Amino acid sequence: MTPGHHPGALHPAKGAGGPPLVLLHGFLGTPAAWEAVLDAMPDHGAAWCPWLPGHGPAAPHPGSFEATAAWIAESLPAGAILAGYSLGARLALGAALHRPGAARATVLLGGHVGLSDPAERAQRAELDAARASTLKRDLEAFVDAWEALPLFASQHRLPAETLAKQRSARLAHDPDRLAWAFEVAGLAHMPDYRAAIAATCRPLCFLTGARDTRFSALAAAVVRPPFVTHGIVADAGHNLLLEAPAAVAAALGPWMETQ
User: Fold this and answer.
1) Signal peptide location in the record (predicted)?
2) pTM of the predicted structure, to 2 decimals
3) Strands 103-109 and 47-50: what pairing?
């Protein structure tokens, strides 16, 4: 997943520079989802924003969650700061734990830590199979249902043009490729990383919106300073890239000073 060998957007270093950044978008997202964050940072190192598998022009592989996390980990430049949102956060967490030390720090926006209950995992597998089927059959209907999820209710306060731009990007995806996100990288396929998080000695920085109570509770349950921390963004929901890019930039900013 490196520039020149994988589709994505490469942003040059800015201001005083800093460590290289690898920034992963979420499900239905695009590399452009990180542009507002980078615009809000006065200084940053070169930033690589790859397409996640199955999104945009990216092929729908590797064929497992663990292989994808390993692929990301092996492609990180030395001293990189790795960050991801939602699906991107889950993959970033897997990459950080697959190869400890590959990333100087990992910043996780609205990131899950994996399901611990086998029954809940089975239920999620059924749900994701149904979602993949709907997605392949009618992308627009799927996006309608996705945007109506209570998880994204806080986005209703955003300007209409912002939501229209997001919807347009979502509808540009190939639904058959996009199903990779459920069939390979869905939450049911993600390992339960709680034990690995409890043992890590590398910085894992969870960031969640105050209105995103479900993911805030998940992050709060694994906090273990100084290695595992959790910040909360006031009056924001799940998608911090869309709702609070300046807060994400502020969370990444201190890591730009540690080159």
Assistant:
1) none
2) 0.97
3) unpaired
